[in-house]
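Inputs:
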Amino acid sequence: MRFRVSVRICLKPGVLDPQGQTVEAALHSLGYTGVQGVGVGKAIEFILEASCLAEAESQVEGMCRQLLANPVMEQYEWKVESVAERASDEERAVRA
Amino acid sequence: MNAIGVVVFPGSNCDQDCLWALSVLGAEAVPVWHESTDLSGLVALILPGGFSYGDYLRAGAIARFSPVMQAVARQAEAGLPVLGICNGFQILCEAGLLPGALLPNVSGRFQCEPVHVRVETARTPVTATCEPGTVLQLPIAHAQGRYFAPDAALADLEAREQVVFRYVNAAGEPTPESNPNGSLHAIAGVCNREGNVIGMMPHPERAVHPQLGSTDGRLLLAALQKVGVSWRGPGTDGGGGQRAPAAASVELNAQAAAGSGGGRQWQ
């Protein structure tokens, strides 16, 4: 089965985020004065082949722990969605 | 052989500087390719500065999975002196061999300038010949040097004398102005609980000749060589001074991880 995976990584609350502060100041200077608490993080997206949803989720969790995020200062969230079989049929057609 | 190994990762760029600096001191030094898994015979190891794997994802995040790093972890546990400089420090933190993490500088800029650091402890191989309180002038050159660890881990580091260098002014006092990157507790270098694995952001290998503006780096590299040779013992292969294995800094990082909000599903 194919899954579309999105991983979102951001700094833990309380970790100073100078990039977020700079973006926030820029938004304020553009007149968006209601903006507060800007945090800048990372989004990582990929396609994963796995036998079932539980297996895919378990692999994604492992990837986050081992490599994608550093738990000392970052937290992460992920989303695993099954990719419709029709999409892979289309891809096969394109390859053919 | 009494050689210090200098690990070369794809993207390391201070490896030749380290080899040259050690040769200036009359120390034997050899490059160690990152695919090597045999570190036998070395008396100490340096993980040099640079941009291993392009600093992609996080500085040091990918280099920690290089084949050599498993051997580094084994040797570090056996007591081999290991010094990570700049990117080497970042790699040791990512590998869990040192506590904490290095974040982008508060300034948002790559900073390349001479700084003063104070030696906080003489219990590591690089500071063994320094009096605590000694102020050294060394250059920094990094974009991600802001030392971070959770509060409890920081308190533990201080209590266990694991802070090795602190950014200070020329008079040896830590001030907001003398902290170049926003490091917590003005930390410029730390060691593991045992003291044999050290990471530091400043570059001692760039401070070994008067024409480089400082020779203070000589003290640290010469001490590393001296301690390494006596640790290994003359003519021995296995190491006379083997210490009890412990994974203290890994524990610290695990504690930090336990408090993480990771693993939630994002809808």
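Residues 254 and 260 of chain B are 10 Å apart (CA to CA). Flag for discussion at group meeting.
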